[in-house]
Amino acid sequence: MEPRGKEAHQDIGSIETAKVGERKAGIELIQAHLNRFGYLEGGSYTPDELDPETVSAISKYQEFQGLSVTGEFDEATRSQMAAPRCALPDLNHGIEFTLVCAWPNWSLTYAFDRGSTDTFGEFLAVRNAFRTWAAAVPLTFSEVDDSQNPHILVGWRPSNDPDYDMVGDTIAHADFPPGCFWVTNTLPKPVHFDETETLWSIGAVAGAMDVETVALHEIGHIIGLAHSDPGTVMFSHIADGTTKRALTTDDIDGAKALYPSQRNWRYCAKCQGLFWAGSGDSVCPAGGEHSKTGSGNYSLRHNAPLIMQWQSNWRYCSKCKGLWWGGSGSSVCPDGGQHTKTGSGNYSLLHNAPTAPGQQRNWRYCAKCQGLWWDGSGSSVCPAGGQHTKTGSGNYSLIHRLQ
């Protein structure tokens, strides 16, 4: 099969190699490519000449793409520029992106509007890509109808997509989260695939692009990641006829930096409290140790910047392994005395937020012991005596998964 975009890719692929200072027809296409992807400022160079500004831009391109840095338009650089790639830029006006914004809401919704005429199963492939990212970071991605105001809208578009051009050597585009947007500052955020010039497949098919591979890359942008090193999912170029459906350590580390969290928090059916099952012996106010029987796995936002709707200053008690709020009054620990925050990071809980998929609501603050407990079933046990109280408490939501 021949990719429908091959003609556009050959615009640069057919240009002669050029050395520093040379003037040749077609170099302006190279300059336009460098400008489009953030390496070269418009109006700063001499058209059709490998002038100092263009040489500097080519050198940046070669370094970013993992090529030998020569400053020349050599065969390796020509081949790389002609290869299929994501439409978002690599650099921001010559400087690498340093994205510091993430979604404030960790429960995101997505919808499909238009599919591809090239293959069957394209929607399932995108769903699989969302699941891969959800397994790496404490984000939940839930599919909704496109009439339900999704955070993300997925679909196949013509190359000259009105929101972001994909004509030529680009195959898809997405956008960054609100607050560091590149395409649009409104919702829904796009994940758009080029339906005009790119041939799509499920799996590795010569001359075609694997939907899940490309979707995995574009969703990385959606959660806040910029382009990264060769070999990673977030590398800007994506080869046709191949698959890359597993995140690398670099991809995962970048995502975790945006969404810092700690897993292995559990619900105790004996006392209705939340405790960490990751180390040592816990102490339950109902007697003995906490029990995680029947509990899912909760992920708590950990040592993250303060943002709206999240209440910080929740702490881990190394004595009882429970979670308590360090913001007011005297706490009561089931292990005796007060809770201790020695060795604890700063946890943030989603507070008085709307119901969202992937979250469990009805967690409460107890003003008697300062602990967190679930008001959803049974009788609770408070270390300060009797049952926990929700008087004065807001409604807390936790990211919740079965495993």
Short summary:
The protein has seven helices and 19 strands. With 403 residues, the chain is an alpha+beta fold. Strands 11, 12, 13, 14, 15, 16, 17, 18 and 19 form a nine-stranded antiparallel beta sheet that branches.
Structural class of the helix and strand makeup?
alpha+beta
Mean pLDDT: 93
Task: Classify the beta-strand content into a percent band.
Answer: 15-25%
Shape: elongated
Relevant terms:
six-stranded mixed sheet; elongated; nine-stranded antiparallel sheet; Collagenase (Catalytic Domain); disordered N terminus; alpha+beta; Muramoyl-pentapeptide Carboxypeptidase, domain 1; 3 domains; 21% strand; 403 residues
How is the topology of this model organized?
Elements: H1 6-13, H2 27-36, H3 52-64, H4 75-81, E1 85-86, E2 91-92, E3 95-96, E4 107-114, H5 122-136, E5 140-143, E6 152-157, E7 170-173, E8 189-194, E9 200-201, E10 209-210, H6 211-222, H7 249-258, E11 261-267, E12 274-276, E13 297-302, E14 310-316, E15 323-325, E16 347-351, E17 359-365, E18 372-374, E19 396-401
Parallel strand pairs: 1-7, 4-5, 4-6, 6-8, 9-10
Antiparallel strand pairs: 2-3, 7-8, 11-12, 11-13, 13-16, 13-19, 14-15, 14-16, 16-19, 17-18, 17-19
Helix pairs in contact: 5-6
